[in-house]
């Protein structure tokens, strides 16, 4: 579609001549179930009267366009994505009336009917540029304005937006109009609306400087599971933390604070000021572990950090998306650690968030944290492990480099200077330089403007008496960077526990750095580079330490040190240095004694991924049986009702493979078998049913009977995954057709069907879909929304056929340089996953 993909150059030019005062947006959500009426009035100025520009709008029908006193013909000025504006005056009023479409892709105004009770829910999600699916606008972050929304909807609905409600009046039988206060000056991508049969709970936060009305919204069918007290508690703790004089010291600027849990959401959450949206899987309807509560608290506090960093001060263009995401990701974990009961949240950060960054940074498509974003398609794909997790890791290092006090003082200076404005990288750096007195240009170049990661390798010389005679750290990878690292030396304390006996903090620079402080001491059992996780790098172990890890990982007392070892071992597995089967054995040897359930869950997922991707296929089923047996043993041994028990139950539920395993699963589901303290609730039921379906032990009738006990939105998604997993030719064909050949399924269903389709006990059975995949790519990319297209391109890449032949086939496809760059990027990344898996399988086969 011409003009849909706004470029950076176009946005710059438009911002040069246009400034926006205000929007009045009037919506009628009673005009149909496929479309709704949208009327927009934009008041804006033009610095060059007589010039031409354009407004953005994605709508199936435009009824009226009026610019100042001129009525324009939509057939002439609207091309499906843009409204051409000629001969602008110094001061302008643009009025646009359109029928906009509800979406089922999670972009724009998503509409959802709850199968549990027929209730209707709508909500918006716009980042980076889908506000134009709700109202006509200038869709770029640096054209901020004040927005006044009004909404006509069924009178029994709940309707919320960024600002507080100012009035409500009846406009017809059973229909009312909500009016909202004008917002502060904000960007289009963070405007928001949620309207429907939402359940609401209210509270208020108060401190010396602020009174903030709070609300939580979710579907009625989830109301019984909404743990409002805990969520409000964390929300209040968050505001108290950010308001502190030694933190942001600036009261939350956007009035009330609603947190809305919405169905079929594409991402974790979105920081719309005053109206934050979250995926409603965060309203836990089955038992979850503390790791899930911690993860949700992290998301909650991440979004709250954005109120200042992202919403109050916003990047000028998407190149600096990292400015807000790295910052929010760092602050989210810092706030969880300091303001909630999850004091060791940096452990989860080390093992989970960093794994995301490390993976992304080794893809051929990696990019500097400060990215080059030419257009909106580039922007869409940049919500990735670099922008979030690597950015946050590097920011964490910056905090150690300039000091915490200077970091927060710099942030306060930055907010004061740029409130309600837009910024780039240099604005933040200059605020930090002013407060810290340090020149950050070298640091910025080394960390923000390069790609990839270094590996740090210990070089230890020991004499005959076991004394270290020389200690150095070798740095590998290009470019070499300055690293502030801690080096930990661990030894047995005499009671079977490995404790840190010595710690040295040092600046690593160049290819080799001597650490003289570590010479002259007894050789430690374990040397851990990057102890305390100060820098962003891969690490290697010397031979003695590698043996200690293998035999004694769970003897290490410090949870962060254990997490760093786990993270390193996973990197070695992915790099084909450690055979996948040895990683699985390491997990079975040590995960049962791991006290942090977040770490247990992560390494169990990694063990499963090691089997799926990195193990020699000839050993895979045997490996799975070993994992299942170990998981069942730990499930029975774990404390009844504990989080660890649930983690092992999930692992067993997914890994089960033998006849006996599958019979036991059926028994757990029917109630004929029990494990003391384990409740087979809805989510666990579906997890186990899916495995039975994959293994040919549950047919469509069994799945339908399970659905009859849980006919909810989540239940239907799980049932779709289970059906797609049933291994018959017709069934796989239907799953493929429903996702690739048809556009009927909403985003969440597409996810479910792809998951079931690709989860098979017979990968070769999917070979007939390899060529159709390549044949469909261009069409899918051009015809489907980017959210759906991305799921198909990534999720259905033919890993089932992984072989050198698949790499060649992919290269042939990539060789055509007319491919859309964003599509190419996704396929290239999957090719890299496939090539990495082949290297690891070869390594495992030699084990
Ligand atoms: Zn964010």
Descriptive report:
This protein is α+β, with helices and mostly antiparallel strands and 847 residues long. Helices cover 43% and strands 21% of the residues. Strands 5-4-7-2-1-10-13-12 form an eight-stranded mixed β-sheet. A five-stranded mixed β-sheet has the order 15-16-17-19-18, covered by helices on one side. Strands 8-9-14-11 form a four-stranded antiparallel β-sheet, with no helix packed on it. Helix 24 packs antiparallel against helix 25. The longest helix has 25 residues. The mean pLDDT is 96. The site of zinc ion has 5 residues, from helix 4 and helix 5.
Topology diagram in text:
Layout: H1 8-17, E1 18-28, E2 35-46, E3 53-56, E4 61-67, E5 70-72, H2 74-77, E6 82-85, E7 91-101, E8 108-113, E9 120-125, E10 146-154, E11 158-161, E12 165-172, E13 175-180, E14 193-196, E15 199-207, E16 210-218, H3 228-243, E17 257-262, E18 269-270, E19 275-279, H4 290-306, E20 314-315, H5 321-339, H6 345-361, H7 376-381, H8 386-402, H9 404-418, E21 422-423, H10 425-436, H11 441-448, E22 455-462, E23 468-476, E24 483-492, E25 498-508, E26 512-514, E27 526-531, E28 538-539, H12 543-552, H13 559-574, H14 580-590, H15 597-614, H16 617-637, H17 643-655, H18 659-670, H19 682-694, H20 700-708, H21 713-725, H22 729-741, H23 747-758, H24 770-783, H25 786-795, H26 804-815, H27 821-845
Parallel strand pairs: 1-10, 16-17, 17-19, 20-21, 22-28
Antiparallel strand pairs: 1-2, 2-7, 3-6, 4-5, 4-7, 8-9, 9-14, 10-13, 11-14, 12-13, 15-16, 18-19, 22-23, 23-26, 24-25, 24-27
The chain binds zinc ion (ZN).
Residues 271, 302, 306, 325, 328 line the site of zinc ion.
């Amino acid at each position: 579609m011409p003009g849909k993909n706004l470029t950076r150059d176009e946005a710059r030019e438009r911002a040069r001549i246009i400034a926006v005062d205000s929007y009045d947006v009037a919506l009628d959500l009673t005009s149909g179930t496929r479309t709704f009426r949208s009327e927009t009035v934009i008041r804006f100025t033009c610095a060059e009267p007589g010039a031409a520009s354009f407004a953005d709008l994605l709508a199936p029908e435009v009824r009226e366009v009026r610019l100042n006193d001129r009525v324009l013909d939509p057939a002439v000025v609207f091309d499906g994505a843009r409204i051409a504006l000629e001969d602008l005056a110094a001061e302008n009023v643009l009025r646009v009336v359109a029928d906009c479409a509800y979406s089922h892709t999670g972009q724009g105004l998503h509409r959802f009917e709850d199968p549990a009770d027929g209730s209707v829910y709508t909500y918006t999600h716009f980042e980076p540029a889908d506000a134009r699916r709700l109202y006509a606008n200038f869709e770029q972050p640096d054209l901020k304005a004040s927005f006044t929304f009004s909404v006509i909807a069924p009178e029994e609905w709940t309707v919320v937006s960024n600002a507080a409600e100012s009035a409500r009046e009846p406009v017809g039988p059973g229909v009312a109009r909500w009016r909202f206060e004008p917002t502060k000056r904000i960007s289009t991508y963070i405007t928001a609306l949620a309207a429907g049969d939402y359940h609401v709970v209210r509270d208020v936060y108060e401190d010396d400087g602020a009174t903030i009305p709070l609300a939580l919204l979710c579907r009625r069918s989830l109301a019984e599971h909404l743990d409002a007290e805990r969520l409000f508690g964390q929300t209040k703790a968050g505001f108290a933390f950010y308001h502190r004089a030694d933190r942001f010291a600036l009261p939350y600027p956007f009035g009330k604070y609603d947190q809305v849990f919405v169905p079929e959401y594409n991402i974790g959450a979105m920081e719309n000021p005053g109206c934050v949206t979250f995926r409603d899987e965060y309203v836990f309807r089955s038992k979850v572990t503390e790791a899930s509560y911690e993860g949700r608290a992290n998301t909650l506090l991440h979004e709250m950090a954005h109120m200042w960093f992202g919403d109050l001060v916003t990047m000028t263009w998407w190149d600096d998306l990292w400015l807000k995401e790295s910052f929010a990701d760092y602050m989210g974990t810092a706030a969880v650690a300091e303001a909630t009961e999850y004091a060791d949240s940096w452990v989860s950060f080390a093992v989970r968030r960093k794994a995301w960054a490390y993976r992304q940074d080794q893809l051929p498509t990696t990019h500097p944290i400060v990215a080059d974003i030419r257009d909106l398609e580039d922007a869409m794909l940049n919500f990735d492990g670099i922008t979030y997790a690597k950015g946050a890791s590097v920011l964490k290092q910056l905090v150690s480099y300039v000091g915490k006090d200077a970091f927060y003082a710099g942030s306060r200076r930055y907010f004061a200077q740029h409130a309600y404005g837009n910024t780039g990288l240099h604005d933040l750096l200059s605020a930090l330089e002013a407060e810290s007195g340090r020149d950050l240009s070298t640091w910025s170049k080394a960390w923000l403007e390069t790609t990839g990661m270094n590996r740090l390798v210990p070089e230890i010389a020991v004499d005959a008496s076991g004394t270290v005679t020389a200690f150095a750290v070798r740095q590998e990878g290009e470019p070499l960077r300055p690293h502030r690292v801690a080096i930990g030396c661990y030894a047995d304390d005499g009671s079977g526990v490995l404790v840190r006996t010595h710690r040295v903090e040092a600046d690593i620079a160049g290819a080799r750095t001597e650490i003289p402080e570590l010479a002259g001491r007894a050789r430690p059992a374990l040397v851990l580079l990057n102890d305390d996780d100060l820098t962003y790098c891969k690490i290697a172990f010397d031979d003695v330490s590698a043996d200690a890890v293998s035999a004694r990982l769970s003897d290490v007392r410090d949870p962060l040190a254990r997490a760093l070892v786990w993270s390193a071992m996973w990197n070695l597995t992915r790099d084909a240095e450690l055979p996948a089967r040895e990683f699985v054995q390491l997990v079975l040897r040590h995960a049962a004694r791991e006290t942090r359930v977040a770490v247990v869950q992560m390494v169990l997922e990694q063990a499963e991924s090691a089997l799926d991707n990195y193990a020699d296929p000839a050993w895979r089923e045997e490996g799975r049986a070993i994992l299942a047996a170990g998981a069942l043993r730990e499930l029975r041994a774990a404390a009844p009702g504990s989080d660890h028990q649930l983690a092992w139950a999930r692992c067993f539920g997914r890994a089960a493979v033998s006849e006996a395993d599958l019979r036991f699963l059926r028994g757990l589901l029917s109630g004929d078998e029990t494990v003391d303290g384990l409740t087979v609730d809805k989510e666990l039921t579906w997890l186990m049913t899916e495995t039975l379906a994959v293994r040919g032990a549950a047919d469509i009738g069994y799945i339908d009977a399970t659905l009859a006990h849980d006919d909810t939105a989540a239940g239907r998604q799980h049932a779709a995954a289970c059906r797609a997993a049933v291994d018959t030719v017709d069934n796989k064909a239907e799953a493929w057709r429903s996702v690739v050949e048809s556009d009927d399924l909403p985003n969440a269903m597409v996810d479910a069907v792809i998951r079931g389709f690709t989860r098979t006990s017979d990968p070769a059975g999917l070979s007939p879909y390899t060529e159709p995949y390549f044949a469909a790519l261009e069409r899918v990319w051009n015809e489907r929304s980017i959210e759906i297209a991305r799921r198909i391109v990534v999720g259905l890449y033919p890993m089932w056929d992984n072989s050198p032949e698949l790499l060649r086939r992919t290269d042939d496809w990539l060789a055509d340089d007319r491919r859309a760059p964003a599509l190419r990027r996704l396929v290239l990344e999957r090719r890299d996953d496939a090539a990495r898996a082949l290297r690891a399988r070869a390594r495992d086969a030699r084990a």
